[in-house]
């Protein structure tokens, strides 16, 4: 999956979960999706609208009520939903799911197949702030999804980050 699309997709907490639920066969109406995801109404509505704006979901014409429309996956949405379903299947634990819903978790894991420097990650993610990247890397390291190593072969030692364990599995699915 393209890193720019991945960054946009994961900028809403429930986007991956909604796509995964649609992929697994949950009807495209709001009530069943809301029940399946466990999201709050406000966060769910924002994520649903975001998926429509990305072109991954569309209203199903002729189905649903005007105030409670039915949604279906677009052609691009079918591919993204398959990836989302694989990612969600890897993370059954609620604590890990909370980390997975954070904006930068999946994009960072997608970029750390090989050891990467902080500056390389920041330049590939473009819109991320230093603080957000640093915080996300610390959380991923604490969860043991990313390993931080100190590279001492250069004149000045520098840290590198690489996906490990479950982070490596998520990287494989996305990459």
TrEMBL record:
Single annotated GO MF: DNA binding
DNA-binding keyword on record: yes
Domain of life: Bacteria
Domain HTH hxlR-type: start-end pairs: 12-91, 102-154
Keyword DNA-binding: yes
Listed SUPFAM superfamilies: Winged helix' DNA-binding domain (SSF46785)
Keywords in alphabetical order: DNA-binding, Transcription, Transcription regulation
Annotated transmembrane regions: none
One Pfam family hit: HxlR
Residues of the signal peptide: none
The protein's name: HxlR family transcriptional regulator
Lineage, broadest ranks: Bacteria, Pseudomonadati, Pseudomonadota, Alphaproteobacteria, Rhodobacterales
């Amino acid at each position: 999956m393209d890193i720019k699309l991945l960054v946009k997709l994961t900028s809403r907490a429930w986007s991956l979960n909604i796509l995964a639920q649609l992929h697994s066969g949950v009807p495209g109406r709001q009530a069943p999706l809301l029940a399946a995801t466990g999201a709050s109404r406000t966060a769910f509505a924002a994520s649903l609208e975001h998926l429509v704006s990305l072109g991954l979901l569309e209203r199903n014409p002729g189905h649903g009520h005007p105030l409670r429309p039915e949604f279906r996956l677009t052609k691009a949405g079918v591919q993204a939903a398959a990836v989302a379903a694989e990612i969600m299947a890897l993370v059954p634990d609620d604590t890990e799911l909370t980390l997975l819903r954070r904006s930068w978790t999946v994009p960072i894991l997608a970029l750390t197949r090989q050891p990467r420097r902080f500056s390389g990650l920041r330049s590939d993610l473009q819109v991320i702030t230093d603080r957000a990247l640093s915080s996300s890397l610390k959380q991923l390291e604490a969860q043991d999804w990313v390993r931080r190593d100190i590279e001492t072969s250069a004149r000045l030692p520098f840290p590198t980050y690489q996906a490990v364990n479950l982070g490596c599995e998520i990287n494989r699915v996305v990459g």
